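Predict structure. Chain length: 137.
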Amino acid sequence: MYDLVCSFQCLEHNPYEDVPALIKHMSAFSRKYLHISVPYNGASFTFDITLRLPKFEFSYTFSKVLDNFGGKRIDVKPLKERPPEKKHSAHWWEVGRPGLSKKKFVRDIEECGLTHIESKHNPLFPHHLFLLFEKIN
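Prediction complete.
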């Protein structure tokens, strides 16, 4: 058993209906936390400014991520037709695309016996969503 189990950029290579079983399997190895990263395809806006003078430095970053504005759904039909050895090479789903908001994704993970602690995007590279969950004992 470990205090923290991590999975970064792996879950999306499986059909979405398999995710609850994968989350439960991973959380079985954790005493406390599960930290995951999944692709985020929603809209985002980042404004970053830095001002450097001899005795003064100012830096400000503003980032806003908007759910449900991310392109179109991924067509999984061709993925289902792939041979087993190539089945997991592409993304089956991405958070932020129509039908899978951050809110829905978090809710689906919480149904696996976890509590959502926090979500983060790197403001300069918001295409990855990092989520921390705690096991419910």
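Summary: DSSP finds three helices and six strands in the chain.
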